[in-house]
Design a protein that fits this description.
53 residues; alpha+beta; globular
């Protein structure tokens, strides 16, 4: 099942895998169940914005 949400705390409780999709591309996996998931998400998105591949 694919779930798309901006509520990372909720997604983390139910997901086995989490990936960040930015600008139509999968840019990074994130480990579910970690306390700083939103911080990791924003770090990935910022890094992609600064260094698009």
């Amino acid at each position: 099942m694919l779930v798309s949400s901006h509520h990372l705390d909720e997604v983390s409780r139910v997901a086995d895998r989490i990936v960040v999709v930015h600008a139509g591309r999968v840019v990074a996996p994130l480990p579910p169940g970690t306390a700083d998931l939103e911080q990791q998400f924003f770090s990935v998105v910022l890094r992609e914005d600064e260094n698009p591949t």
